[in-house]
């Protein structure tokens, strides 16, 4: 069979390439370790061509979910399937089309990247000579030297190697566990391009992260996990619309703070002398700036809300 | 860029064997050299034993039960075969081969898992059962390579000191030791696969090997131990002094066949458990 192993150079609009075919499905999925419930009654689906950001604070169960999907863990409730195949019972079949980047990839340090890629090709029953063009093309794109021993590579370069290992065989399902930690900003851009291309080629991508800012640029949808449960599942466009900013204003005259009453979408307001902090929905920022223009402001800080703040604003209080 | 990928190849084609063998070359060479050095050392002392009546008498005067730790056919220390058997094949040879095999066996699953590498390695189309089986085959090949090398070393060193050794029996003795090593290596693979714990695998192999060694060596001293002797791998590996009596194919087959359910149990438990993180 002929496989075009080069990834498309320019990604088509990702939205249009979502073909609706559901690639990843978690159905009432649960995982208990003794008494600790790491994942609870989880429903999650990712369509082919879709990039889903999987968000949550550390310890929320993101890695456990991904390890259930790779078949490293056996579910204690429900099921996880990829393209209709059970991730536990049919693991080897699922893995044929799976790419996985663990959060801190543990690789054999004594061999070169090229040797690890040869091994990966052999495990996928592909001749090394047939696999190399795609592997080296990806390594070139990420500026990674495959002739060096893994032990000599920096953390970022090991991360790149893990990305090449996950992508060279053009997986239809891609699981990434906080993949950009350790990558410098320039490489992160290349990495985002690669992800977009992979999704555009029809792969379902599930990307875990603890930072909304990291995923919102290329995820179509965001699923938020907290203490093993899904607490939010939203379009990135919806999130953007509702995403609050944290604002701190210092007024020359504390009485002038009443000007904020005229702005809709101000919440969590707290005053401390002449300083007021509050959150404001993104769409109301224009109104806020106009209102502040009418009084004397001595200091102003606006920053993106933390994830927790975002979901407090979206869902009103702790879920 | 377009690459033509051939149709899927045979399911029997190994996927990780070649890589595992290549990775274990250093350990295999190291153990071969260590054991080879020992062989040369013993060979160098042989001329002193050959012509010594005192040693012969000393050995003959040992209590029969104690002597049985060194020989089961009654071959004395003054024949080359008896000497090499007592010095090399009664304890140190099997012990070193066992250590080499155990190291490879522990690394196969539990060692990789402890380093956190198994998650990624097994997120490929290689099943856990295949991983276990191919690593067991690699282990067997490595152990046999060590034994083959040291059989050659022994033939050369023996010839150098004019020791009267039958080449066929030298090879037989090393094959016996190798097969015993493979059995314990497979035990290490199985315990490591079942539990993911390298230390537990090592302790299990250590205890089982010690118990089997003592049961075999001390069997003549106790009717109870004598009844247990057929359960000891050492009974079949060194029990007939293969260096004196040659190859016992039936015994070798028995040892290898009993390794299969051990390996199968390890693979079965491996398929049912979570990988450790």
Gist?
Chain A is an alpha/beta fold. Helices cover 31% and strands 31% of the residues of chain A. Chain B has one domain.
Can you offer a commentary on this structure?
The complex is a heterodimer of chains A (319) and B (277). Chain A contains eleven helices and 15 strands. Chain A is of the alpha/beta class. In chain A, α4 packs across α5 (128-141). Mean pLDDT of chain A is 87; it is low at 1-18. With 277 residues, chain B is mostly helical. Chain B has one domain (15-271). Helix content of chain B is 75%, strand content 1%. Chain B has twelve helices and one strand. Chain B has helices at 17-50, 53-61, 64-67, 80-114, 118-121, 128-160, 167-195, 198-218, 223-228, 233-237, 242-245, 249-272; one strand at 2-4. The two termini of chain B are 38 Å apart. In chain B, 47% of the residues are buried. The chains are: A alpha/beta (319), B mainly alpha (277). β1 (2-4) of chain A pairs antiparallel with β1 (2-4) of chain B.
- Helicity range of chain B: over 70%
Q: State the secondary-structure class of chain A.
A: alpha/beta
Q: Which class best fits the helix and strand makeup of chain B?
A: mainly alpha
Largest sheet of chain B: none
Order of helices and strands of chain A: EHEEEHEEHEHHHEHEHEEHEEEHEH
The major beta sheet of chain A can be summarized as: 6 strands, mixed
* Tally of individual helices of chain A: 11
